[in-house]
Amino acid sequence: MNVVITGITGYISKSLCSYLEKYNEKINVSVISVRGNLNIPAETDIIIHAAALVHKKESLQNEEEYFKVNTDLTYELALKSRNTGVKQFIFLSTMAIYGDICGAIGKCTQIKPVTFYGKSKLAAEESLQALQDEHFKVAIVRPPMIYGPACPGNYKMLSKLSCKSPIFPKIENKRSMLFIDNLCEFILQLIQNKESGIFHPQDPQYITTSIIVKEIAKANKKSVYLSKLAGKLLNIFIGNTAIYQKVFGDLYYEESVSLYKDNSYQKFNLQQSITVTERKQ
Q: Is residue 85 left, alpha or beta, with left meaning phi > 0 and alpha meaning psi from -120 to 50?
């Protein structure tokens, strides 16, 4: 089975390549760049499209770029994949298609992206679904925040903070996150089961920001005191701000949305994934 992953420099694509090669010897994996080049290797069975424009400050000047890369390029790649005999197209979408929602995301939650990133990903999803037929299966994956060894983004900030600060606000929030190896195992199972549809994988338990900071500190043989008073004061003074909601707000998939088979893709729990992540930093 020949699998091609897009995005030579991407965190997810590099992690996927290593994982698939390690855990399934029947899969031949290659990683390609699709920037200015849509040459799909001969006899490709499956495309995993992980390349995207992300983590770039949005402005009116780069709106067109987001749609060019995340929507138009995705459609062109999928169309060429279908025309050259690719059997399955797995697309890495995002939780951001739900917009500025706080709280639970369920089967009936309205999709209303507010960022160029979220809007361009949703447009890509719609274009891909129009291409699907009995010979060309499309699987769309909407992961929450992904973390793991050497990952970019918010996790790195929390990791640094947990190692420097002896006190952290204790706030009981609820968030969905996804350890990189759990994501890779999920995609491996999509391949093995020849799946199509829309999927919302997440870790086996919800994450509390305060607890994840405490677990990171523990993995580094440090201790953090979780202060209820600091949590209350933080809520009083900045509880209505966007930064507070981003760090301490509720944002999670209902468990029923993330159910897949027996959920065996959730190989690592929080403590295990934090230990692995911090050990390899």
A: left
Helix or strand or coil: residue 198? strand
In angstroms, the CA 51 to CA 49 distance is 6
How far are the Cα atoms of 183, 221, 264 from residue 271, in angstroms, in the given order? 16, 13, 17
Q: Using CA of residue 42, residue 50, residue 94, residue 62, what is the dihedral sign?
A: negative
pLDDT single digits (tens) 153-207: 888 888 888 888 899 999 999 999 999 999 999 999 999 999 999 999 999 999 9
Query: Whole-angstrom Cα distance, residue 263 to residue 60?
Result: 41
What's the pTM? 0.94
| Exposure string over 202-241, b if 16+ CB within 10 A, otherwise e | bbbebbbbbbbbbbbbbbeeeebebbeebbeebeeeeeee
Would you give the distance in Å from CA 233 to the centre of its chain? 32
Phi/psi for 178 (5° steps) reads -145, 115
**Angle formed by the axes of helices 154-164 and 209-219, to 10°?**
60
Q: Which residues, at least 6 apart from 120, have a Cβ–Cβ distance to it below 8 Å?
A: 53, 66, 67, 69, 70, 71
pLDDT, tens digit, for every residue of 246-270?
899 999 999 999 999 999 999 999 9
**Tokens describing residue 277:** 């992540």
